[in-house]
Design goal:
Strands 3-2-4-1-5-6-7 form a seven-stranded parallel sheet, sandwiched between helices. It is globular, with a radius of gyration of 32 Å. The chain has helices at about 70-80, 85-95, 100-110, 130-145, 175, 200-210, 245-250, 255-260, 270-285, 310-330, 330-355, 360-375, 380-390; strands at about 120-125, 150-155, 180-190, 215-220, 235-240, 260-265, 300. It has about 400 residues and is an alpha/beta fold. α9 links the parallel β6 and β7 (about 300). α1 (about 70-80) crosses α3 and α2 packs antiparallel against α6. The longest helix is centred in the C-terminal third of the chain and has 28 residues, at about 330-355.
């Protein structure tokens, strides 16, 4: 028998913790005050009891203060002043698909475009699992320590089923996200092809107007043919993985042919030897590809985002590329090509939106879709009929 207990297994009266009596309350030891799991013949050793509740006062409902819509002039001035909150709101405005926001977004871009163009635009792409986010985290920290202001535009794939995005790449940039000189903006791809978001070009303009001198565009995990980001940046960096292919894979026309710089990531630990072997293989493969226009010859480097080894060498090579491209005039040619590609993308988007808004096409579209679905009408002929009805084809 435990010390301090009586022969019947209960505590002496002197050891029982008695609750202080409460006014207008059920007695503490009464059956009505005990939970339903207490045995019916329980003694006073079960001191757990139910305390009568009291209705809480009704909460005082205050009107919710909502932020009023920013005027384009005030928002542009705040972005020029380096207000990060204003920059985030400006990006949200230009990414909006609402027709009511289109005029304000266009005015904002018109006001900020003269202050843009001064940053180094670098695209970082690679296959899923190549370590793009971790690489940008390591590179961005080194750039911030060197006095740079870094903006990271991370594009996350959208689900084709739910149309949602996790936007979790920022969680892999833990060190960079704590730097006051850095700004990280994750955006959903929104079903856009090419590994970028719908308004990536416009977002670059806003970041440059806010004073960021380095803009890193991280694409979704892309394959050989998704190279749309190449027309948005000045330097195209492709991250590679050891064991992802041999020389034949490197010779294939596609993303490697457009790369200005290739880096074999995860060159550390037991994977270091394989990464260096992959570096040599892709280096040999570049000899079979036609060199890009200009005097620059693409290089293949090896680095580790975990240890930081080789990251500084990658950025040194990027700076050499910018110096040579400015000296040769290739930099200005690329910027002009970026502007024309932007124009072409907006015209294509505008034509599609105009076609969608055309009234009176719904009955004809339903009829043609039914005929195409059943095989009664070839898809090219159905497309010609719809475009002719919308006024886009004879």
């Amino acid at each position: 028998m435990r010390a301090g207990l009586t022969e019947d297994g209960t505590f002496p009266d002197s050891d029982v913790r008695r609750a202080r009596p409460r006014r207008d309350a059920t007695p503490v030891n009464s059956a009505a005050s005990r939970p339903d799991w207490v045995p019916a013949n329980a003694g006073q050793e079960f001191t757990t009891h139910v305390v009568p509740g009291k209705a809480a006062p009704a909460p005082h409902r205050r009107p919710v203060k909502r932020r009023s819509a920013d005027k384009a002039e005030a928002l542009a001035a705040a972005i020029r002043g380096g207000d990060r909150g204003a920059l985030a709101r400006g990006i949200t405005l230009i990414e909006s698909r609402a027709a009511t926001h289109r005029a304000a977004a266009d005015e904002l871009l018109h006001l900020l475009t003269p202050q843009s163009g001064g940053a180094m635009r670098v695209g970082v792409t690679g296959a899923p699992g190549a370590g793009k986010s971790t690489f940008i985290d390591a590179l961005g920290v080194q750039l911030c320590d060197a006095g740079r202001r870094v903006a990271v535009l991370s594009v996350d794939p959208s689900s084709p089923v739910t149309h949602g995005s996790i936007l979790g790449d920022k969680t892999r940039m833990e060190n960079l996200s704590r730097r006051p000189q850095a700004f990280i903006r994750p955006s959903p791809s929104g079903g856009e092809l090419g590994g970028v978001a719908r308004r990536t070009r416009e977002t670059i303009v806003l970041c440059e107007a806010a004073g960021f001198d380095v803009v890193l565009v991280e694409t979704v995990g892309v394959g050989q043919s998704e190279v749309l980001v190449r027309g948005m940046v000045d330097c195209f960096l492709v991250l590679l993985l050891a064991g992802a292919g041999d020389e034949l894979q490197g010779i294939k026309k596609g993303i490697l042919e457009l790369a200005d710089l290739l880096a074999v990531n995860k060159a550390d630990g037991d994977n270091r030897a394989r990464a260096e072997a992959a570096q040599r293989e892709f280096g040999r493969a570049l000899h079979y590809l036609a060199p890009p226009a200009g005097a620059w010859q693409p290089q293949v480097l090896a680095c580790s985002s975990v240890t930081g080894e080789g990251i500084a060498g990658v950025w040194t090579t990027v700076e050499k590329f910018f110096a040579l491209s400015r000296e040769s005039g290739e930099f200005a040619v690329r910027r002009q090509a970026q502007a024309l590609a932007w124009l072409d993308a907006l015209v294509t988007e505008g034509l599609r939106e105009t076609y969608t808004r055309r009234s009176g096409l719904a009955p004809l579209a339903a009829e043609i879709e039914a005929q195409v679905r059943t095989g009664l009408l070839p898809a090219p002929e159905g497309a010609r009929r719809l475009l002719a009805a919308a006024g886009f084809a004879p």
